Amino acid sequence: MIVCRSKTRLTEATNAFKDNSVPQNRDTGKMDSKAAGMNPYVGLVSSLRDAWLAGKMRTVEQRVSQLEALGRFLDDKKQPILDAVASDMRKPPFEAELSEIILVRNEVNHVLNNLSSWMKDEFVDKNLVTQLDTAFIRKEPYGVVLIIGPWNYPLHLILIPLVGAIAAGNCVLIKPSEISSSTETLVAEVLPTYLDRDCFAVVTGGPEETSQLLENKFDYIFFTGSPRVGKIVMAAAAKHLTPLTLELGGKNPCYVADECDLQNVANRLVWGRCFNAGQTCLAPDYVLCSMEMQEKLLPALRRAITDFFGPNPQESPDFARIISDREFQRIRALLGSGRVAIGGQTDERERYVAPTVLVDVQPSEPAMQEEIFGPILPIVTVGNVDEAIAFINSRERPLAVYVFTSNNKLVHRVLERTSSGGFGGNDAMMQMMLVSLPFGGIGNSGLGLYHGKFSFDTFSHHRACLLRNMGLEAMNALRYPPYTERKMGLVLSTSRIKRSGSCTLL
Question: For 191, which of 256, 295, 336, 452 is 20 to 30 Å away at the CA?
Answer without folding.
Answer: 452
